[in-house]
Design goal:
261 residues, 7-stranded mixed sheet, globular, disordered C terminus
């Protein structure tokens, strides 16, 4: 099932509610001029942000009859049509998971962001009850049966792996949060019945939530200015010589030292 269709299911709506809350809380006070959301038009991740220029980019043209008013451009996430250091904020809601080359997409995001620009990322957590069920379903399907719980397309990227990618690209992690600890059930009634697991999960096993949200800032390390102060200061003529230096010189060349007296 494609991600867009899966998000219309009860588990998908449960996930979207949590992700909207994360985007709204984290991006409301991110200031600048230009913000870009790549992928997942079903969620307005920039709704709470107040930048004057906010765009939505998708990787595929919207289907006929769909509401495409929010879509500003269709582009490949690994080749963005923006100049270097031209965007203040880029949002990636499950974009890396659906990208054929997620590392290239993240590298392109690093290119278009200004210094101190921010990137917000949402994704599925493989180390969760949902990830475990998806893994078991893949095993059953390889033996001729089984039904996937999560969308089939894409590759889920663990938060620990994504941390390493961000660090290699000169991003500094500002925060990471986890959510959706309810078990991998399909019905809305069953999901509501396990609502108490969200409270326990947030306290006792936070890193095992079904989804994660990351906010990172680009730290550009520019060249260090080097002035004349790096050179050794000249020694003025007639400056006194330390006793230690005179003793060392006398030990190495005693005859010259006697002549100087």
């Amino acid at each position: 099932m494609p991600l867009h269709d899966w998000l219309q299911t009860p588990p998908g709506q449960y996930l979207l509610d949590w992700e909207r809350a994360q985007f709204d809380a984290a991006l409301a006070d991110v200031f600048g001029y230009h913000a870009l959301q790549i992928g997942l038009p079903g969620i307005d991740a920039l709704a709470a942000n107040r930048m004057p220029h906010r765009w939505l980019a998708v990787t595929e043209p919207p289907p006929e009859g769909a509401d495409a008013r929010r879509v500003a451009l269709v582009t490949d996430g690994a080749v963005l049509p923006f100049a270097e250091a031209s965007l203040d904020l880029v949002v990636l809601p499950h974009t890396l998971e659906l990208s054929p080359d997620p590392h290239a997409t993240l590298r392109e995001v690093q290119r278009v962001l200004v210094h101190e620009g921010k990137v917000a990322i949402a994704g599925f957590n493989p180390a969760s009850l949902w990830g475990l069920r998806q893994y078991r379903a893949h095993l059953y399907r390889s033996m001729g049966g089984g039904r996937l719980y999560l969308p089939e397309a894409g590759e889920f990227i663990g938060h620990w792996r994504l941390r390493d990618w961000l660090r290699l690209l000169d991003f500094e992690l500002e925060g990471v949060s986890f959510g959706c600890w309810r078990p991998a059930v399909r019905g809305a009634g069953n999901l509501a019945r396990f609502g108490w697991m969200d409270r326990l999960g947030e306290r006792w096993w936070p890193i095992f939530g079904a989804a994660y949200f990351m906010l990172a800032v680009k730290r550009s390390h520019g060249p260090k200015l080097v002035g004349a102060h790096w050179k050794a200061a000249p020694v003025p003529a007639g400056a006194p010589v330390s006793i230690a230096n005179r003793a060392r010189r006398a030990a190495t060349n005693p005859e010259k030292d006697l002549e100087s007296h």
